[in-house]
């Protein structure tokens, strides 16, 4: 509020309001640099975390163009990183996506193996934005250092909790992710890193972020980063206990739930789980009615939710996906209220979904050994519900063939098999859509 | 303030705070589109006016790449437009800068003559940001329409006063220029205009402005635009009278002043003048001490001020340049206080500057007909002061040769000649710096 009154002027101007704005900007830069762990002249403010990522990747790639045009990213980066990688590929560059394991983490050795002589830049998030899994940044940074490749760390999810350790070369973050205002991102570029800003430039922010600085928001961003950091250690312990409670109790309270992400190496305030036989959007709306604002990585039911590339890369169930973000200050009683409400909400959604599909969709019975389920035209979670209904109808060793044209089935049918201990045989093209083959094991 | 409380959530989310944010965003877009005079789906919010210009130019050029890579801009566009033109040129495109007359206006016919078969885009500001001159946008738009070339109008200076008439194709503006918050620009792209957004994209703002929307600022921007528009007509009359008063009285109160810009076709609240024998930075600091916050297009004395490309293109004096911006609500008594203070301030600066150069710098006396003044190493306004001191020492018809290595002399010596009715003969390279030749006429 104070910076709205004090910081409206142009810091490039010489009159007193401009000089005051310059002082505020300098002070904000120093505070932010201290929190990041870099020099003030290595850090610029951008209009958003996304713009920090886009500018950082474009500038680092251009700065090392002579070395090569190979870019490495993890498969679970924020979309801003993946969009920048897409743009690089469209421009003739090459991109390697490093896979993640079932909890969403890259393997540092596997990441290092992607490094090659023509690698211009590698990107790795400090922690995942959907499932909270912390990435092995220090090990990856060490491998990049040894290979002479700069590492850009997207620290959007973790900067409020503490600085990113390890020898990163570039770092991007977003103020609204640590509870600061929208309209401010950070881009830090270590001295010595080759960097060539792309696009039109001006004299602001060392030529790395064009346009009139959003000074009130920048001041608020720096102040809020300092404020959340002051309570980060204590709050991390408290939120970690609350998310641990959710991780432990949800599978006991709700049948057929998969909690995803690393149980140990994770952010304090994010917890994500997926519920079989539930569509994410309906679940989200029902929770909203109960006054819980959650996100979902499901693509069920309607086009308003897009399937999560993170859950896909992890190979875990996406249907009925719920992502809880507990901001600092979240009260224990709200968590308890959520845990009390969830079972009824999920049961209600399942009941609703169960009804329209109660008439068997089994069309062809090929002897006793194989069943075909036609789920064409039906959206997630219907194909999985149909599969679950008929798996008991074939003998152990028999197969069910699920026909589906819903993209989510590709992820959710194998995930269901893993959860249920059934064998996922594979997929093959069908006359319409895709056929997913499941063998009954138990 | 209300939108900081109400509009913090992500408008892409489905929970109630997200839906409320979406409603706020939609309402802001409708209000802004109405003020611009376009459809809501033609308008996106960007992080600044500069980003709107950069994205608009890049997208329009890419959209018409098959037509050609020729870009037309006026010579007095905002630096954001010229930077985008530089980037286009660096990328292999061609750029034509259309000159302006002595009041800073382009000639619509001359602008039209720059159009050619390979022209992808033309850019013209609605009004100039330094001298307030209004450009003939409607005529230029008509010529562009006839040639099938889209016209991008940088309306940053004028949008608060009213919509831009004429058949523009793209329009850019900046909220903080109309008294709104920093962090918000507008980019309108008319339906049917070929447009290919450049750089990494995301799903926000129709793929034309990536990154989390700065919703509180967007809401405040739309509200403030509506508010200033409600009083624009009345306030324009009042401010125009105040700036007219400054334009008329400054030359009477202060000797050797040139008021610049169009006396009629101009913005209500901007007035710019240049004072001979004064350096802009000292003048600015002295006015600041008297509680007036003004800008300057001078490059005198130190590197903190860069020479104005606008004054240069107009061919007017840049030394001792003062730009007054009267925001809506400026009080008459403040204008009177300024007019009362200015003569003393200018006189004081002139006295200070006169002292160190009182010892004649005349080095060589080549007969009676020619004098050489060595002003090498001396910054503006010293070269002009030296010239003025010795012009009386040569007979009518005689010449003074001023040696200078200050870039401002190239602009200010011809401008002084025009103000003083002396003949500017031309410049030629000297052993050090440049020699400027002036013939005494009167």
TrEMBL record, chains A, B:
Among InterPro entries, the record links this protein to: Aminotrans_V_dom, PyrdxlP-dep_Trfase, PyrdxlP-dep_Trfase_major, PyrdxlP-dep_Trfase_small, TusA-like, TusA-like_sf
Q: Name one Pfam family in it.
A: Aminotran_5
Q: Which reaction does it catalyse?
A: (sulfur carrier)-H + L-cysteine = (sulfur carrier)-SH + L-alanine
This protein's name: Cysteine desulfurase
Per the record, the domain of life is Bacteria
Cofactor or coenzyme needed? pyridoxal 5'-phosphate
Ranges where the UPF0033 domain occurs: 373-397
List the GO molecular function terms.
cysteine desulfurase activity
Q: Which family does it belong to?
A: Belongs to the class-V pyridoxal-phosphate-dependent aminotransferase family. NifS/IscS subfamily.
Looking up SUPFAM superfamilies in the UniProt record yields: PLP-dependent transferases (SSF53383), SirA-like (SSF64307)
């Amino acid at each position: 509020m104070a910076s709205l009154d004090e910081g409206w002027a142009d810091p490039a101007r010489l009159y007193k309001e401009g000089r005051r704005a310059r002082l505020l900007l300098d002070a904000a830069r120093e505070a932010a640099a201290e929190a990041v762990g870099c020099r003030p002249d290595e850090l610029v403010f951008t209009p958003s975390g996304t713009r920090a990522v886009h500018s950082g990747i474009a500038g680092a790639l251009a700065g090392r163009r002579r070395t090569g045009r190979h870019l490495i990213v993890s498969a679970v980066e924020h979309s801003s990183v993946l969009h920048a990688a897409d743009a690089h590929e469209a421009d003739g560059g090459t991109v390697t996506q490093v896979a993640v394991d079932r909890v969403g983490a890259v393997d540092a050795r596997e990441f290092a193996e992607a490094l090659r002589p023509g690698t211009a830049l590698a990107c790795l998030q400090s922690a995942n934005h959907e499932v909270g899994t912390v990435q092995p940044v220090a090990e990856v940074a060490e491998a990049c250092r040894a290979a002479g490749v700069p590492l850009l760390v997207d620290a959007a999810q973790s900067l409020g909790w503490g600085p990113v350790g390890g020898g990163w070369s570039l770092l991007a973050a977003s103020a609204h992710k640590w509870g600061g205002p929208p309209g401010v991102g950070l881009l830090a570029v270590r001295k010595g890193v080759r960097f060539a800003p792309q696009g039109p430039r001006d004299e602001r922010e060392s030529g790395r972020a064009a346009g009139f600085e959003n000074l009130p928001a920048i001041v608020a961003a720096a102040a809020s980063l300092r404020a959340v950091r002051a309570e980060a250690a204590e709050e991390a312990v408290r939120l970690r206990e609350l998310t641990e409670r959710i991780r432990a109790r949800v599978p006991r309270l709700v049948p057929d739930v998969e909690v995803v992400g690393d149980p140990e190496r994770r952010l304090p305030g994010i917890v994500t789980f997926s519920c079989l036989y539930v569509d994410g959007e309906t679940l989200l709306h029902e929770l909203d009615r109960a006054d819980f604002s959650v996100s979902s990585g499901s693509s069920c039911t309607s086009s308003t939710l897009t399937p999560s590339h993170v859950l896909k890369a992890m190979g875990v169930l996406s249907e009925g996906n719920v992502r809880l973000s507990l901001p600092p200050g979240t009260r224990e009683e709200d968590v308890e209220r959520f845990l009390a409400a969830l079972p009824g909400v999920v049961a209600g959604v399942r009941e609703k979904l169960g009804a329209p599909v109660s008439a068997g969709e089994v069309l062809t019975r090929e002897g006793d050994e194989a069943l075909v389920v036609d789920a064409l035209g039906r959206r997630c979670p219907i194909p999985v519900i149909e599969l679950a209904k008929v798996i008991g109808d074939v003998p152990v060793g028999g197969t069910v063939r699920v026909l589906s044209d819903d993209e989510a089935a590709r992820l959710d049918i194998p995930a269901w098999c893993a959860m249920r201990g059934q064998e996922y045989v594979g997929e093959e093209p069908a006359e319409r859509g895709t056929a997913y083959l499941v063998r009954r094991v138990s």
